Amino acid sequence: MSDTAPVVCPSCFETFEVAVPPPGETPCEVDYDCEVCCRPMLIVFEDDDGDVAAWARGLGE
């Protein structure tokens, strides 16, 4: 299991790494500000066969 996962910002489309929660705490959504453009987003964490997958969506999606 990785401690971080890559996420693509839905506003500026830059990729950055975020810390992932333990698989037992997924699925979940976390409010997060992009580390590049600082725009708000939701990062969705899902269990993927013992690993945690992450992807981001804008607040209006």
List strands and helices in order, with pairings.
Blueprint: E1 4-8, E2 15-19, E3 28-33, E4 40-48, E5 51-57
Antiparallel strand pairs: 1-2, 3-4, 4-5
Number of beta strands: 5
Give the H and E element order.
EEEEE
Mean pLDDT: 92
Strand order of the largest sheet: 3-4-5
Which class do the helix and strand fractions yield?
A: mainly beta
Q: Unreliable segments (pLDDT under 50, ≥5 consecutive)? A: none
Global Rg = 11 Å
Oligomer: single chain
Number of domains: 1
| Beta-strand percent range | over 45%
Gross morphology is globular
Short summary of the structure?
This protein is mainly β and 61 residues long. The protein has no helices and 5 strands. The model has no long low-confidence stretch (mean pLDDT 92).
Structure description:
With 61 residues, the chain is mainly beta. It has one domain. Helices cover 0% and strands 52% of the residues. It is globular and about 30 Å long. The model has no long low-confidence stretch (mean pLDDT 92).
Primary descriptors:
mainly beta; three-stranded antiparallel β-sheet; 61 residues
